[in-house]
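SECTION: protein entry
WANTED: fold as tokens:
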Amino acid sequence: MRILFALLLGLATSAQAALTVDGYRAMQEAHGADNQTIDLQVRMYLDGLLDGLAMATSTLPDEKRSWCIPDNQPLTDELAYELFQQELRLRGKEYAEFSELGIDVPFSLVMVDALERRFPCRD
């Protein structure tokens, strides 16, 4: 249900303002999957996205959080890129199905899914 809500929310916002999975795949197809310039730009974007998501949820009470990043976990561009790539590998087929339906998944949704998977909150 959370994914459907997030996708509908994503459709309501401007796709021009955010990087998307389809856009990323198109960049890789056009310029090569191992393009260092694309990797650097994506890393910088994801680093800012991770910082923003962490900051936006930092004041939420524990019971309202959907992920809990440990205090000793450095928020780096390497972490952001690793989380993103892992989530694409795990859910790539699902994201491709969304694409076939005309739903372009924003990086922010991928990152939220990745954070929930890697850093679930413990009771």
